[in-house]
Design a protein that fits this description.
Blueprint: H1 2-19, H2 23-131, H3 135-139, H4 145-153
Helix pairs in contact: 2-4
């Protein structure tokens, strides 16, 4: 073992003499370089992480705004649908009311027509009775009962 260690020392002395540095200095220098390289990589990765976090925050904010917009639009759609239903219901009620008025008007008109038919029939009877009066009724100035009834209503 001693021969190995002494050989290592000889080699390290000869490499020191060649480079002007000892093995310990080379090893330390490599460690420092490696550490610096790792620190640079670490800094780069931290920058990437910060960038990704910022993108994530932006994305979450946009997502939040999109969700809020969607809720707002959904509420607006519900309001408009309710308004449309209200308008349709109002139109239905108006149509129902108009139908009721027309139905009432139809009933009134039917009654007036029925009354007019009765009156025309009565007048036809009066005229017929007046036409069918005999000479004796004319000389005595007697009128048919339908004519007397007509004169009383007049």
């Amino acid at each position: 073992m001693e021969t190995l260690e002494s050989n290592d020392m000889v080699e390290s002395n000869s490499s020191y003499q060649k480079n002007g540095k000892s093995n310990i200095d080379l090893h330390t220098s490599n460690d420092e370089d490696y550490t610096l390289e790792l620190e640079k990589k670490l800094a780069s990765k931290e920058k990437e992480i910060l960038s990704i976090k910022e993108k994530l925050e932006d994305t979450e904010e946009r997502l939040h705004h999109t969700i809020e917009d969607k809720k707002s639009l959904k509420n607006r759609i519900n309001e408009l649908e309710l308004k449309e239903l209200s308008i349709q219901l109002g139109n239905y009620e108006k149509l129902k009311m108009d139908h009721s008025k027309l139905d009432h008007r139809t009933q009134v008109t039917k009654k007036q027509l029925e009354d007019a038919r009765k009156y025309i029939k009565f007048m036809e009877n009066v005229i017929e009775d007046l036409e069918n009066r005999g000479i004796t009724d004319l000389l005595r100035r007697r009128f048919p009962e339908t004519y007397i009834e007509y004169m009383e209503k007049k």
